[in-house]
Every structure is written in C-alpha cells, then in structure tokens.
Amino acid sequence: MAQHTPIGDRPSSHPENEKSARFYKGDCQDQVNMGRVLVKKRNIPKGARVLDIGCGPGNLTVEIADGVGPSGSVVGVDLSEARINIARKTFTNPALDTFRPNLSFLAGDAHNLEFPDNHFDFVVANAVIHFLDLRKSLVEINRVLKPGGGFAACTAAGEYLFAPIEIKKEVQSREQYRAAHIDPNLGVFAFPKQSHFEDVLVETGYHSTEIDVIHGIIVREDPKAMINFLDASWSETYIRCIPEKLQATAWDDFEKEFEKLRTERGIEIDLAWMNVYTTKAPADNHPSD
Ligand SMILES: C[S@@+](CC[C@H](N)C(=O)[O-])C[C@H]1O[C@@H](n2cnc3c(N)ncnc32)[C@H](O)[C@@H]1O
C-alpha cells in the first residue's frame, strides 16, 4: 500500500510563500464547498469548542465559528505561517467587518498539537488528512478531543484514481526527469482508502464511524489554471517542487497532459471524496484503558 508522506518531509525547493498562500485563499472554493457539506451534516452544537486542523486561510473556519455562535469558539491551526497570517489579518482584526471574536489562529503541526488533553468538543479536518501521517494525526486528534467528542474529516477516497496524481507520476517517470535524478514520486502522496481509514480509526480509539463517498468534478478554464490550483492546494509540491532547470519543460509536459482532459466545460477532473464522521470513545470504552 502506498505510504502517506507528511508534507513537511516531502522534498520541496519552494517552501510556501505569501504569494502562494494568497493564491490559495482566492482559489479554494472547491475545498470550502466540500467542507460545507462536511460540517453541515454533523451540525456542530452552539457553544462548542472546535479545532479546525489544516485551516489554511480560514475560509471554512469562519463559517464554523458562525455556526457555534458567540458562546462557542473555534481555533484554526495550520503548518503554513503564511496562511495563518492571512487568516489572522482577515478575521482577528477588530477594525474589520470580517472580525470574529470567537475565532483564533495558530501556526502548528497537526501531528503535535499545542493543546491539553480532552480539550475540544469537536475537531474538523477538511482537505488535509491526506497530507498527514494518518495514524499519528488520528492519535493526536483523539488526545485533544474530549471523551465522546466528534471528529469530521474530508479527504479524497483512495479507491478511485485521481488524474492529477496519475499525471504527476507519469510525467516525472519520463527519461529526461530520471536523467536529472528526479524521483517519479517527488511530491506524490496517496489518498487513504475507506477500509484502511476505518481500521486506523478503530485502532486509535474512535467509534460509531460513518463515511459518505461523494462524486464530483473540479473544473478550471485551462491547464495552467488547473495546475496553479493544484500547486496551491498541495502547498507548492505539485509542480513548483520540480528543480528550476526543468520547470519550463515540466509546465509544458503537464499542460499537454491536462489538455487531454478538456470537455465543453474546460479542463475537468473527477474527484471521489469521503466525508468521515466519528466519535472519540467515552473514557470507559477507550482501547488503552
Ligand atoms: C488543501 S489545504 C485545505 C485548507 C482548508 N482546510 C480548506 O478547506 O480550505 C491543506 C492545508 O493543510 C495544511 N497542512 C499540511 N500539513 C499540515 C500539518 N502537518 N499540520 C497542519 N496543517 C497542515 C496546509 O498548509 C494547507 O493549508
């Protein structure tokens, strides 16, 4: 089975900068739409204390904060300081209309959260779990959740092929990339399969898991727009992780492959994603007890 490689360990000559973070904020509507479906079904109660893991620039986090109301609170955590800065500037400045007093942001790693045990009523992880070490992050989320607390995660379903991953592996395995000592798996990760996700949830102390698999599409007007969207979504590890000397060639090669996915709507890719809902076992039912 393909391994999940934490994003921090993935080779990248281009650590995320402010520009890329801003680009993501302007082009994350697909993720936010999926996140809305995720949180709407679970109906996080008013007054809940919520953690949004891998919150990015906070576009979904603010909607969760509005949902829990003034008696609740939401903290967004993200590895990218650039994204956290944008989120703070947008939502934590009392001088702006977008200010939310029940919302805060912290730069940090989902594998090692700076919160006490049993702290949150609910944790959300939208479009991030595939960048993490699944087991390690589920253990950490379990630690910070109160017993009986809820966890909702959205990620693509590993049972289905995702064209951008197939294209990336195929292009990077071509002779001229190999000759430049580029690993075909540079920046590649695998989406978790449903049965694997369920098994790891049981092993790490969750119960009552429900999973919805939803089929959708992502469309951009041309290959360049699609590649820019993917690269920002993958924190610059889709194409900008390829060494400088092959960048122009890589853009050309990737664009040609995405052009083959053109329909009357534009460049179109299928996406099957999983909405995973689960609960931390109550204290008397935890496997480690
Ligand atoms: C595709 S974006 C999703 C952002 C947001 N949840 C949304 O729905 O728009 C993935 C996010 O996960 C963050 N991320 C990746 N690895 C992380 C880690 N180890 N800890 C915390 N955040 C991480 C990235 O910086 C990025 O902002």
UniProtKB/TrEMBL annotation:
InterPro entries named in the record: Methyltranfer_dom, SAM-dependent_MTases_sf
Superkingdom: Eukaryota
SUPFAM superfamilies per the UniProt record, alphabetical: S-adenosyl-L-methionine-dependent methyltransferases (SSF53335)
Sequence ranges of Basic and acidic residues compositional bias: 11-20
Coiled coil: none
Pfam families (alphabetical): Methyltransf_31 (PF13847)
Region (Disordered) location: 1-20
CDD domains assigned to the protein according to its UniProt record, in alphabetical order: AdoMet_MTases (cd02440)
Domain Methyltransferase positions: 46-176
Similarity section: Belongs to the methyltransferase superfamily. LaeA methyltransferase family.
UniProt name for this protein: Methyltransferase domain-containing protein
